[in-house]
Fold these 4 entries.
Entry 1:
Amino acid sequence: MQPLLTARQIHEGDSYTIAHEPISSVDLMERAAKAFVKAFTEHYSNTAQSVIIYCGTGNNGGDGLAIARILNEQEGYHKVSVKIARFSEKASDDFNVNLQRLRHTEVPVSEFKTADELGLESAEIIIDALLGNGLNKPLEGEYQKLVHQINEWKKTVVAVDVPTGFAGEGEIDSEATMIKAELTITFQQPKINFLLPESKYALKNWLAVDIGIDGEFTQQLNSPYQYVEESDIIYMLKPRERFSNKGTYGHALIVAGQAKTMGAALLCASACVQTGAGLTTACIPQAGLTALNCYMPEIMAIVREGNGTPEIDWSKFSTMGIGPGLGKDDSSLALLTAILTNYTKPVVVDADALNILAEHRPLWACVPKGSILTPHMKEFDRLFGEHKNWWQRTQTALQKVQELQICIILKNDYTIIATPEGKLYFNSTSNAAMATGGMGDVLTGIITALLAQKYTPAEACIAGVYLHGMAGDDLALPNKLMVVLPEKVTAQLPASMGALMAKKISGF
Ligand SMILES: NC(=O)C1=CN([C@@H]2O[C@H](COP(=O)(O)OP(=O)(O)OC[C@H]3O[C@@H](n4cnc5c(N)ncnc54)[C@H](OP(=O)(O)O)[C@@H]3O)[C@@H](O)[C@H]2O)[C@@H](O)CC1
Ligand SMILES: Nc1ncnc2c1ncn2[C@@H]1O[C@H](COP(=O)(O)OP(=O)(O)O)[C@@H](O)[C@H]1O
Ligand SMILES: [K+]
């Protein structure tokens, strides 16, 4: 896991590395500038392009000065120039050192004291090194004017570390002024807010470059925010053992579907089968039985007749996934109530089962400890009340998982998993081609299958969300697909899991 740090913790990490590597702070800045330049030249390789670097007078500006020197002297970008925003008397020591160094190069450097002094910008690419991680209040005055001006030029902007004006954590004010960057090359780790939807106004794309901040130190800061990486899933994944049989991998019950929404049940149950549950039974309406048998003969059925609640032998099942296409009528409420009051092991609650929970608060107390709720944003707000922004949702999720001793999967681009130990895990797989109806049903099937195979609830969430996104990526990215269907993601799961297992066996 990569810890995601707040601005203050990032600063502590920098200071610790400087003291204990040891490395001088100006050399760390040099390392950061080189890492930026390496990524920049890979993306904007035309050295004949004119590049202007707008620098503040803190360390972000210092980075900008070092980047200008390295681009010019080492990478052959001869049309690089620098403009320094002297909006304050203050300048950091490393900024001053790098300004002296830059004066020994051919790079033209000019300074301005007010945004009004600027004429039209002729450079093709703007590098934003005005303010970085040191932002301590919303932009106003000259900085605000300057950032508006840069945005109005509609040039290609590449931000150093963070777009100026963008806060790395906390609530993002939709009215705040910030640089709109085509690419943000950020140091060491994505900032927490890069992973929330509101960041799309400032960041089109981002990538993180390693600058050698002490990993042991940042781990022991014990951040509640973590970024899930492939190696974490490889570590968690359990092999299919010799002499194992279907009983080894659990029996999952998928409670889903109505006559008109049988597709949700089929997608969910088939994903459960493909993720390796030893046995999968689907509790479906009579009307869906033929469809189920034709769609996937591996799935067994418990049939719901009329509005009655079927007999279920609770002891037979390792876990249950409840909700996709289930509907919210009285019979669905009765069935959910029967499950939650009779079954004591962790279950996965999704879709209509979440909507029923939202409308029947007394049922919450019956949800087995360790269960997993998988709401998308609207379902989340139905459960826990309206939220003005995603930062607020993350904080509510953290509070609710501890209060209810459950896990919450808040579905999104970077899906967020909250666990009862008070951690938030941001997933790093999945893509916009997966934004099609039924994709969440597949996720529920995957997570149910992992619970059946004795993954802990937290592991089932973290690995399930990762594998779901990975299967979508494995299909969409190499084949440049605009759209990926849930059924295809399901079919891809064994191969994607197998690829990770092969890496595990070969020691990565
Ligand atoms: N050795 C290291 O630590 C490394 C650091 N690195 C780099 O350093 C960057 C962080 O640098 P930093 O801490 O100097 O902060 P930075 O973003 O340049 O701005 C600070 C200045 O801005 C001011 N200010 C703040 N908000 C404001 C506002 N709204 N409107 C106006 N002014 C505002 C604030 O002034 P104050 O309010 O305190 O008077 C302060 O003087 C980081 O992003 C990375 O690029 C890398 O080189 C790796 C090694
Ligand atoms: N733009 C996107 N980028 C990445 N993943 C996405 C995107 N849109 C949707 N997804 C994923 O697809 C799934 C959609 O779930 P959900 O909204 O519950 O779908 P449904 O209810 O139609 O089954 C979630 O796992 C989500 O993370
Ligand atoms: K910046």
Entry 2:
Amino acid sequence: MSLVLEANKVNKYFRKPVLFHVLTDISFNVKKGEFASIMGKSGSGKSTLLYILSTMDTDYEGELYLNNELITGKSHQELSRIRNKNIGFVFQFHYLLSEFSVLENVMLPARKLGELTEKEIEHNAMEILKTLGIDKLAKKKASRISGGEKQRVAIARALINKPSILMGDEPTGNLDSYNSENVFNIFKQLKDEQGLSLLVVTHDMDFAQKTDRIIEMDDGKIIS
Ligand SMILES: Nc1ncnc2c1ncn2[C@@H]1O[C@H](COP(=O)(O)OP(=O)(O)OP(=O)(O)O)[C@@H](O)[C@H]1O
């Protein structure tokens, strides 16, 4: 099975206020079409790891591969492009632009990538909104929709550049159980129907137990 993401002996230190070895020898991979979750106590290093895996933090030791390509050591400019094209993100907070419409919010990362025409981007955005069952919201301002809907729009935005992996940092952390389950079902649908790979940091045991694999962290290490 082909690998979408691979971390090989990743170590990370924070140097201030004192030297702190926050991640120790992290090695694991995510296969194409796999839905994995990362769990662990507060402070175990989950967000720090996700920040490295998402190519936003380059200050680490070890190697990182995305779609079998070594991305460690690449320039910030190259990484920015690789990230925009290959990785979708969903955070606990939606970070939508409240004065823009739902459709415009979803179109934004594709405009930034600059590979398609406005018409093509709009078409793709509408298709994704349909898949997530929120196409009726397209023209609404992001400030005028509910919390659960905002998170679905954030997922749509994360998908617009057709990433090979979707990463989430507590994507259901702000949602009630109904909307959390809804987000899980969307992720599962994307995996089953489109072969998308997913890696989600979560504190929600119900959510994690339904994923293909739980990666458990403690004190900066993977323990199972
Ligand atoms: N910029 C920083 N400088 C120094 N230490 C940091 C920095 N950021 C995080 N830490 C420390 O690194 C450790 C790991 O933090 P991290 O946020 O990755 O944990 P986490 O598992 O995601 O926690 P949570 O579940 O609470 O979000 C913690 O002890 C934290 O205090």
Entry 3:
Amino acid sequence: MIDLMGVSKTYKNGVHAIKNMTLHIDEGEFVYIIGPTGSGKSTFIKLIDGEEIPDSGTVIVAGTDVGKLKFKKVPYYRRNIGVVFQDYRLLPNLTIFENIAFALEAIGQDKATIRKRVREVLELVSLEEKARSFPRELSGGQQQRATIGRAIANKPKVLVADEPTGNLDPEKSNEIMRLLEKINEEEKTTVVMVTHDSTLVDEFKKRTIALEEGYVVADMMKGGYIKHE
Ligand SMILES: Nc1ncnc2c1ncn2[C@@H]1O[C@H](COP(=O)(O)OP(=O)(O)OP(=O)(O)O)[C@@H](O)[C@H]1O
């Protein structure tokens, strides 16, 4: 599903954020990306969602060579990728229902299909009761669930989450993890999650890729050590 082959990314200021990275993530996997600040985690996510393009090497996601995408094609490519950030980024003047529907309207789905899918998503993220509420009327955990609902509304092949629990207390973080697991299992979405939260990584065991200074320094399958470069 995701293949990086010899990928390097240097920013204009000369920072080498990703160095000669090669890794494979299978369809349906749930993978953590961990590592100290500045190790390249967000850059890795940006290379997957097409926000950044590698200087060398190849990034293939769901059959698309992301680095070779024409500028105009990027928005179409992005429909395959759901993105969730630490801050919720919901549209403040739209209800939760409308926020989720908006993602589907933007890709031109018809009204009946949108209504059906939004109801389905609200149920999946346990926010049926909040359909008519505005983001400011929801708790942080609920807002993050709504954001996740919006990100997966059009059934993307991959969900990338950059510190999705970064602003939440442990109980709410666990709730988000259970939701991401449910999406991974029920919707068969490949999940790539950047996190600093070692408690979560210990509790919800998944393949864990550790980065340091732009390199993959460990790749551990559910706690078992499989690779060190
Ligand atoms: N747009 C940019 N322009 C220039 N340098 C950047 C840019 N984005 C990131 N960097 C640099 O690239 C390196 C990797 O950054 P990145 O954001 O990928 O790390 P990170 O592991 O996600 O860090 P954090 O845990 O602090 O979010 C850092 O040295 C950072 O300062």
Entry 4:
Amino acid sequence: MRKMLIAGNWKMHMTAGETEQFFREFMASLRQPPFREALGRSRLEVALFPPFTSLYVAAFALEEAPRGFSLGAQTVHWETHGAFTGEISPAMVEESGCRYCLVGHSERRHLFGETDEMTNLKVRALLATSLRPVLCVGETLAERERGETFTVVRRQLLKGLESVPAHRLGQDVVVAYEPVWAIGTGKTASDDDAQEVCHFLRSVVGDQLGAEGAESLRVLYGGSVKAENSAGLMARPDIDGALVGGASLKSDSFLAILRESLSALA
Ligand SMILES: O=C(CO)COP(=O)(O)O
């Protein structure tokens, strides 16, 4: 059975001081029911993706975290080291206490020119370490209206995973479907639409890369996830978790999503 992953992408929010404050509230709640039991029984995994400058503070706060809680970075460079001013290597991310790293988030693709070739270099560089890539795919509104959703996400998925051995997929890779038109807009994909695309992504992996990888691969949904819509989304068979933006910035709203998502597992 695939373990549910609820991830919070903080984007360019939260100073180190704000991070410290967040974790003070958050960790206290996470040690209480129902979270303690769910994390302990390995049904739920929670991950937060703070900005680089907050990773050490977060890692320190997490020393006392229950099992099943991890950290991730929001991006990475694919080279191991070198003259790349402003960039961070996989080893640097790994050493700051991360287990995951986002790759190909739509903001990186659209605002910073991240291409499919770059996402593939990043995925492979991460897999050469202990880090697990969370490969983000998703269509723009214009692409959806032109009927190109499936073509776009298929290309982003297969290019991003090119040359990744099938046996690494289920264990070490996570895919997140984030329709660009649903990010930060308050417009969520309907449960049916999100399920349809997540199912499609799993079937592409199955057809191209092997049934075993497809069955164990975790596919998340992201785009205006909040407490009100999370239980419905998480109850769908091919949606294995959420990638939450705005609603992960406050301990209360993120905990409410965790609570609702757990109810879908019951
Ligand atoms: O981009 C997202 C997570 O990576 C989604 O952001 P919102 O939840 O704010 O729409």
